[in-house]
Design brief:
globular, six-stranded mixed sheet, alpha+beta, 136 residues
């Protein structure tokens, strides 16, 4: 049998574990299409989901790289982990979440992207929607 003290300690441990992962979501119409964003912060990376289909779509890793003894901003590489590997997907990914990495102390970002029709204006609107979910 567990004592009351052990049960209380277990409950505190579970509550502390829940606070390790923080998440925030937002939704709005972008060019007439419902666009949902979910941002989740983990200890070692940030996960951002942007969807107009209600599913994850293409999974992209956006990783910062800094040169030792350089005070300039890091460069970012993108890698498609799952889904369509098209040049514009890399451009969208960098434009949408580079600021997330920079503002979070250069954490890598995992981006799930499922867009119907993207253009310059819609990407700007989606970036603002991501900014509204700021947890980092």
């Amino acid at each position: 049998m567990w004592s009351n003290q052990q049960l209380c300690q277990s409950a505190r441990t579970l509550m502390a574990a829940k606070s390790i992962i923080r998440s925030k979501q937002a939704a709005e119409a972008v060019d007439g299409t419902l666009t949902e964003v979910v941002c989740t912060v983990f200890n070692d990376y940030i996960f951002v989901v942007v969807t107009q289909y209600g599913k994850m779509g293409t999974l992209i890793s956006v990783t910062p790289h800094s040169v030792e003894n350089e005070i300039s901003k890091p460069t970012f590489s993108t890698k498609i982990l799952m889904g369509k590997d098209e040049p514009l997907i890399h451009v969208y990914a960098k434009h949408l979440v580079t600021f997330v990495s920079e503002e979070s102390g250069n954490k890598p970002v995992l981006l799930a992207l499922a867009l119907k029709d993207a253009n310059v204006d819609s990407i700007k609107s989606i970036k603002q929607l991501i900014q509204s979910c700021r947890l980092w």
